[in-house]
Amino acid sequence: MGVLGSPAAGGGVERASYTTKFGSLESFDKGGVELVNDDARHYAFSNVFDVASRSKPWEKVAVGKNMEYVLEVVRAEGISEWRTAAHDEFAVCLDGEVTLDLVKLDSSPLAEGSEGSVAIDGEPVGPRMGRVYLKRGHQALLPAGAAYRFTATVTGVMLIQTIAGPDTQFRWAQICQTV
Amino acid sequence: MTVSDIQVVQSEGTNAEGYHEFSLGEFTFRRDEFFVYIGWPTGNHIMSADAFLRALQRDVAWDFFYGVVNFDGVFGTVNHYGTVDIFAGRYNESYRKAELDYSENVETPQIRETFKAVLADWTNATFDPFASPHETGAAFGIKNGENISAVTRRRVAANRMVAVPGDEQIRSDASGFPVNRMFRDVDQSEPVIEVEPGYEGEVAAFSLFAYLSRSDVTWNPSVVSACKDSLFCPTTEEYILPIIHGNDRVEWFLQLSDQITWEVEDRDTGAVRSRVVMKAGDICAMPADIRHQGYSPKRSMLLVWENNSGDIPDLIASGKSPTYPIEF
Ligand SMILES: [Fe+2]
User: Fold this and answer.
1) Inter-chain CB proximity B187 and A178 less than 8 Å
2) What are phi and psi of A56, to 5 degrees?
3) Domain segments of chain A as ranges
4) CB A163 to CB B227 under 8 A?
5) Helices B49-61 & B108-122, crossing angle to 10 degrees?
6) Centre of ligand 1 from the C-alpha of residue A124, in Å
7) CA A60, A61, A63, A64 torsion: positive or negative?
8) Going residue by residue through chain B (328 aa), what tens digit of pLDDT does each one get?
9) Is-contact B158 B167, C-beta < 8 A?
10) Looking at domain A57-172, which of 2.60.120.10, 3.30.470.10, 3.20.20.140, 2.40.100.10 is its CATH number?
C-alpha cells in the first residue's frame, strides 16, 4: 500500500494509486465456482488465457454459448487463414499484438443470412479495405462480407463475438470446471 | 400511451422532510431522512434511502432490464417488455408461504415516468446514485436540492460498434470523460487504423479498455457491439451491484480486469446456490433460474454478454429451453 490518498468525496480515505490487474498468457489466476447447492457445469466456468494456453494457433474454441451465438477464444500466433462471415463479427485483443487485414470480397462464398464464419481457399479476391494494428484491450469490427486475416506480431489471445460456424470447437468438458 | 397521457400520482405538497410521496397502482412510496417506506395492500417494507436510490437508478436507466430487478429480498420489478410487474415478496419464500406477497402489472410508460419522478425528487444535490461510495456524498438527510444531470444520464448503446462513424463515439477528456482514479494505469493508446478510400465506415476499431477506464458510472452495462442479437454490454464495477438480478435468460460474464465475487441464489426462493469468484480472464454463465449480486473491491472491468432475442423468455419459462447454456 502506498501513501494514503486524500479523503474522497464520500469521506473515506483512498489509496494514492491503484494497480489494474489484467490477465495474459504468461500470467493469469483463476477463480471458480464454490458450490453450495448446484452443479458446476451449469456455470461453464473457464478462463480465456488458460484455454488459449492449451490451444493450437488460430483454433476457434467456444468459451461462451447462448443459443446460436458464441464467444470464441483464439490463440493468436503466426499468421491466420483468411475468413469471412455474412454478418458482422468483432474481435477483442486480450493479450499480445495483432495486425488485422481486411479485403472486400468481390463475391462471398456464403449465402446472405448464413451464420458463422468460414475459411477462404487461397487469397481473397477484391479490393483492400484497410489494416488495423491491435494491442491489448483493442476491439475491431470484422465487417459482414469482408475477408479478414490476423497476423500476430506478438503471440496473444483474441476474443471473437460471433455465431457458431463449421470451425467452432466445442470442448466444454476439457476447459470448464465440472465439479 | 404517450408520455403526455401519463399522470404520475404524487402528493400535492411535501412531507416534513421536504419530499413528495408517490403511488403507483396500490403501491405507495415515501421517504424521510434515512429510509424509504413502500406500502401495498398486504404489507409494507423499509429500505435504506441510499440502497433504494441506487437500485431505482439502475431500474430506470436500464428501462427495467432483462427479467427480475430485485431491489432487495422483498421489493422489485419484472420486465415483460411493454408491461412491468411491480412486486413485493414474490421471490421470497416466507412471504409466499404466508400469502403476503403482492404483485401488479402496469404499462411500462406509467412505471417509467413514476420511477423517474421518484428518482428526481428523492435524489439530493450531494448524491449520485451511479457513483461508488468514494465518489459521491450521502443520499441521506432532508430534501437538499437535486441532481438531475446525474439521474438523467444518456444511456449509451452502440448499434454496430463504438467508434464506427455515426455510431457511439469513444470517450475523452474533451468529451467530459476523464480516466477514472482507479484506472489511471490503463493504457490510453488507440489502435492505429489505415483505411482505403471508401471504406471509412467499415474499417473501425477502438480501445475497449481505454473506453471503460473513462466510464463515469458503476454497474451500468451498455452496448459497445452487436452481432445481431448478441450484445457486448461491458461495464465498470466498484462496491456492490445495487440490485439482485434474476434474469429471464442465460447471461454470461467475462471478467476483463481485477476481481468480482458473485453471490448466487435461487431466483424464486432466494436460497443460496453458489458463490462465484471471477478473476481477470475468467468467463462463466449465469443460469436463467438464479439471481446474482456482485461485489467488486476495486473498480473492475466486466464484460456482460446478453442474447437480446425476444423469443428467449418464453422458451425458458415454458421449459423448451434449459435454464443453463451447455450440455456437456
Ligand atoms: Fe445480471
Assistant:
1) no
2) -80, 155
3) 57-172
4) yes
5) 140
6) 41
7) positive
8) 566 789 999 999 999 999 999 999 999 999 999 999 999 999 999 999 999 999 999 999 999 999 999 999 999 999 999 999 999 999 999 999 999 999 999 999 999 999 999 999 999 999 999 999 999 999 999 999 999 999 999 999 999 999 999 999 999 999 999 999 999 999 999 999 999 999 999 999 999 999 999 999 999 999 999 999 999 999 999 999 999 999 999 999 999 999 999 999 999 999 999 999 999 999 999 999 999 999 999 999 999 999 999 999 999 999 999 999 999 8
9) yes
10) 2.60.120.10
C-alpha cell belonging to residue B67:
427479467
- Domain boundaries defined on chain B: 3-151, 181-216+218-317
CB under 8 Å to A11, separation ≥6 — which residues? none
Interface test with B, best of A20, A97, A133, A159 (most B CBs within 10 A): A20
Is pTM beyond 0.95? Reply is yes
Strands in B217-319 per DSSP E = 225-227, 230-240, 244-246, 251-255, 259-266, 272-279, 282-286, 290-307
Q: For residue A138, give the chain B residue with the closest CA.
A: B207
Query: For residue A175, what are the CA distances in angstroms to A31, A48, B204, B250, B274?
Result: 14, 9, 32, 19, 20
Separation CA B75–CA A162 (nearest Å): 37
Contact residues on chain A for B135, CB-CB shorter than 8 A? 8-10
CATH classification for the domain delimited by B181-216+218-317, as one of 2.60.40.3250, 3.30.1600.10, 3.30.428.10, 2.60.120.10: 2.60.120.10
Which one-letter amino acid corresponds to residue B114?
Answer: T
- In this complex, which of B162, B258, B312 lies closest to A20 when CB atoms are compared? B258
Tell me the C-alpha distance between A172 and B9, whole Å.
52
Where are the extended beta strands (E) located within chain A? 4-7, 13-15, 32-35, 46-47, 60-66, 69-79, 83-85, 89-104, 117-119, 128-134, 138-142, 146-163, 168-169
